[in-house]
Amino acid sequence: MFEQLELAPADPILGLTDAFRRDPRPEKVNLGVGAFFDDEGKVPSLQSVRRAEQILAENDSDRSYLPILGAPRYGELVRELLLGDASGARAVTAQAPGGTGALRVAADFIARHRPGRVWLSDPTWANHGAIFRAAGLETVSYRYYDATSHGVDIEGALTALRGAAPGDVVLFHGSCHNPTGCDPDQAGWEALAALQAERGFFTLFDVAYQGFGDGLTEDVQGLRAFVKRGAPMFIASSFSKNFSLYNERVGALTFVGGSEDEALRVASQLKIAVRTNYSNPPRHGAALVTCVLDDAELRRTWEAEVTGMRARLKELRGSFVAALKAAGAARDFEFILGQKGMFSYTGLSAAEARRLTEDHGVYLVSSGRINVAGLTSRSLEYVARAVARVVS
Ligand code: LMR
User: Fold this and answer.
1) What integer is the mean pLDDT of 140-160?
2) pLDDT in tens, 297-311
């Protein structure tokens, strides 16, 4: 039946991990997928999470279904981290399988109840467009990144988004923009929030790296600028990175509306979107997050662990830029120091990225995005020398 079926291309990000695994070269380095690795090249198991595992193993054996929108306490904690006390009863949360699950539920809801165009930053995460198009929505891009200054082109973004109609949806990255690592400054966020109030478009924030930029609270100041103005929004958030719980798929979709009644209506329709996708969310990862955040001591431990991950990312940027200089790279990579979070948009072309992979076994996304956290003290100089060769 499917003998003539077209072979689908590999996923532009997760496909790199498959190719990396198949590569027999011992010197290979994976800077593709956005996961935080320690200096041993391992995804860390956080101490706070290991302790929560013990607590759950000893005290909790519930195997029943969760409610369709997930555990209520988990939802409260998600909102507390994202919104502080800014939301009250105007907000509601659906626990979701990862940030991607949250985005897909949002996309299904939007396609059904508010099917405008979805505006994505240029560039954006490689999967964003695919998720919204899979839900039947049209996507368009807005100018975001200035390749000459290696920064956000806020004027360009504002100009483009003046074209967004009230029925459209605009997606912003909460912090640590994927793939550029460049976020608007607070004045930029305020200007975008003012534009939202003027144009009346609907806002969707993708918050996948809270704590990896400037801090857990600092990294949500952009979205809070919108909330303060009363902007209705969806927030798709994920604990994959800041809890290092990638394969547990712990995410959430939060709606912030104008009233408790509106939040209740949205929640009722979100239930349908969830029920027709995966019925109700998986429990374990969210239970771990809840256990950590609800315990003062475990929470302190977790916050310190997030601080440690953020510090490692910053340190790696410094060492990488220094190593590129030492390797005699014929291009200035100083701008990498100003980028935030896990990713660096190196400015390497698709052809240069391909040469890095083919000639040196260094895997990166063809857009030139590297996962800085994929570097280790052992691989850093090797990668810098490879980059220097490719750009000379
Ligand atoms: C990434 O951008 O590499 C991560 O968000 C992982 C993924 O699912 O693509």
Assistant:
1) 97
2) 999 999 999 999 999
Report the separation in Å between the CA atom of 12 and the middle of ligand 1, taken as the mean of its atom positions: 10
Residue closest via CA to ligand 1's atom 5 equals 34
CA distance 389 to 331: 11
Ligand 1 pocket list (CB less than 6 A) = 13, 33-34, 125, 127, 178
8 Å CB contact between 301 and 294: no
- 261 in active site: no
Q: Rounded mean pLDDT of the chain?
A: 95
Nearest CA to ligand 1 atom 4: 34
**Sequential DSSP letters for 292-360:** HHTSHHHHHHHHHHHHHHHHHHHHHHHHHHHHHHHTT-SS--GGGGG--TTEEE----HHHHHHHHHHH
| 3-state SS, residue 264 | helix
For the ranges 54-63, 94-103, 189-198, 263-272, the lowest mean pLDDT is seen at 54-63
CA distances from 123 to 143, 152, 172, 350 (A): 8, 11, 11, 14
CB–CB of 207/183 below 8 Å? no
Indicate which residue of 28, 206, 219, 302 is catalytic. Answer: 206
Answer yes or no: 340 catalytic: no
Q: 182-188 contacts: CB < 8 A, separation 24 or more? A: 182/145, 182/150, 182/151, 182/152, 182/338, 182/339, 182/340, 182/345, 183/152, 183/213, 183/222, 183/340, 184/152, 184/154, 184/157, 184/222, 186/221, 186/222, 186/225, 188/152, 188/154, 188/157
Residue 294 has phi, psi (to 5 degrees) of: -85, -5
Do residues 266 and 92 touch, judged by C-beta distance below 8 A?
Answer: yes
DSSP 200-212: --EEEEEES-TTS
Question: Looking at ligand 1, which atom is closest to the CA of residue 34?
Answer: 3
pTM: 0.95
pLDDT at residue 86 in the model: 54
Q: Which helix (H) or strand (E) element contains residue 271?
A: helix 260-275
For the ranges 81-90, 109-118, 124-133, 154-163, the lowest mean pLDDT is seen at 81-90
Q: Per the residue annotation, which of 125, 168, 219, 302 is the catalytic one?
A: 125
Question: Which residue carries 């990294």 as its tokens?
Answer: 219
pLDDT digits (tens, 9 = 90+) for 100-123: 999 999 999 999 998 999 999 999
